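Assemble and predict.
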Amino acid sequence: MTVIRGFNRVKYLGVSLLILFFVWYILAVIISSVILPKPLQVLKVFLDLFLSGQIFTHIYASVKRNIIGFLVALVMGSGTAYVLGLSKKLEPYITPIFELLRPIPPIAWIPLAILWFGIGDNSSYFIIFVAAFFPIFTNVYFGVRSVPNKFIRLRQGYKLNGFQNFVHIVFPFSLPYLLTGCKTSIGFAWMAVIAAEIIAAHSGLGYFIEISRVLVQTEKVIAVMVVIGIIGYLLHQIVLYVEKRLIYWGEYD
Amino acid sequence: MIKEHNLPCLEISKLTYFPDSKVNVLNNLSFELYKGKVTVILGSNGSGKTTLINLIAGFIRPNSGSIKINQNGNESFSSVVFQDPVLLDWKSSYDNIMVGLLSSSKNVGNQMVEKYIEMLQLDQHINKLPKQLSGGFKQRVAIARALVVNPQLLLLDEPFSALDVYSKEKLQEELYDIVCKENKSVILVTHDISEAIFFADNILILENGKIQDSFNVELPKPRKWTKLRNFPAFIKLREVLRKRLNVRRNENE
């Protein structure tokens, strides 16, 4: 069954890529190759980027920023959500502030980030943090608030203190929500890091795309976009893997 | 000793509970429970049985009346077994049982856990997660968790209602043996007449938030379904209770 499923997946991927390249090729023939290069031109540049090693410093810069910003958001977002989710006194005062900040797109923070931190790593960390914070905060907060009444009765019945309640009931119960937040936020963070680097950095894949645009190297722009897509996919797969390992009681095994 | 036998371990006096001004769930309810006795609260759905358990367990507060507890030094006062076993999905059977002891001494706890694992025939299942257990074994784990805290009073809220007939009768016999051996005081709420007679020293009929009738049950101990089912006093009392509950229902209609 697994072999057949794997074969089908490869088959579907192959067919969809063929359709994509065919449509792309037709459009490239119709439109100027400066605006839209042909797939083979892009593939050649894509391979050159890796063979020359030129891309690796930019990949390292972007992934490093993404991971640092994401980890800070993970700690701050989940920490704030647990405090507010468990505190009936604080929640009514703080939650409206988050509700006001949440709809502001991370890109809208870029000018402020440049003013506060200048061009460079710190601006990028800040933008990634903003992008990754809210999906984690919202999911964990919802998870904490979703602890069923029967578990609250269990806590009361066995007189668990706040720490025991958190360690044995609230945290494990909310862990799937936390990981759902991580899946969303790692994607948001990756999109935000590229946007931030286009405007406010001197390295990274976003910066590399911007430089290639200025030099009208369209095939390089598209090749880097492909790299961004592949890395985004891999980051998502890493979180999925962690989720499957951590939520051993769920439907994953 | 004489004093202990004469003093009820639980005295409920004029207990009234209404969650809002329109509905009276429990109305002026009074009864006493003596050490080592099983009182069964028999009533149909919505009669206030679970509310009574929640009040005695301290999960909710009455609007008026009192629940007086005469507690022995070394025992915790009560623990509850719910209709739903309320197991933590992320913990093994053993760890779920240990939840009962999180707020007490570990040394005493381990001895108690081993004892009830053996008594409830959980030896082969201690490392399993709840999702790997049948309904009957989940309820055994919940019962073990309730017993390890050495409660003076065991509160049973329809704990057998989700089980198949074979698992139900087997578990009822085993739990009744434990209750008799350890001289536990028990309040069982149920709508199952046969189950009520099997467990009871005393049956209280709860209707419309009031105790409408009381029946003493004088059947031989230990009780086994194979013998009890054909016992004339059991059959007679079952008929009396059936008639009594049907009469009341017809009057209400």
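Chain B touches chain A at residues 54, 57-59, 79-80, 82, 84, 86, 88-91, 99-100, 102-103, 129-131, 145, 149 (CB under 8 Å).
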